[in-house]
């Protein structure tokens, strides 16, 4: 496994929920990342994020790691879920919240 793949694998494995995004949760750098953050916040789950704009290796590597061409990308308990469009569809259908509950994802503090 390449160095970048092992780094991504470690990030995905270390967090229940991780979002690879452009920017940060407080300052998203694209509308899709902003929408993904809003969805996760609405679900009330604790999550980590990785700003792909700060690391070109991760930015390119995540696309081949997941075999998904766009960013943001959501992983829950090590499993690739999808990008913001899939997140939105799942959220609107109640499936994203159900997945978080079934996988016993930690709730956000506050």
UniProtKB/TrEMBL annotation:
Q: Which residues form the Glutaredoxin domain?
A: 17-81
Sorted keywords for this record are: 2Fe-2S, Iron, Iron-sulfur, Metal-binding, Redox-active center
**Is-annotated flag, keyword Metal-binding?**
yes
InterPro entries given in the database record: Glutaredoxin (IPR002109), GRX_PICOT-like (IPR033658), Monothiol_GRX (IPR014434), Monothiol_GRX-rel (IPR004480), Thioredoxin-like_sf (IPR036249)
What family is it from?
Belongs to the glutaredoxin family. Monothiol subfamily.
PANTHER family recorded: GLUTAREDOXIN FAMILY MEMBER, MONOTHIOL GLUTAREDOXIN-S14, CHLOROPLASTIC
What name appears for this protein in its UniProt entry?
A: Glutaredoxin
Gene behind this protein = grxD
């Amino acid at each position: 496994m390449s160095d970048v793949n092992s780094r991504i694998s470690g990030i995905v494995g270390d967090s229940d929920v991780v979002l690879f995004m452009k920017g940060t949760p407080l300052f998203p750098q694209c509308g899709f990342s902003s929408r993904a953050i809003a969805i996760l916040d609405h679900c009330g789950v604790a999550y980590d994020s990785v700003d792909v704009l700060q690391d070109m290796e991760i930015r390119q590597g995540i696309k081949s790691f997941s075999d998904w061409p766009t960013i943001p990308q959501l992983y829950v308990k090590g499993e690739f879920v999808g990008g913001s469009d899939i997140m939105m569809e799942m959220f609107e259908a109640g499936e994203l919240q159900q997945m978080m509950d079934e996988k016993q994802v930690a709730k956000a503090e506050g």
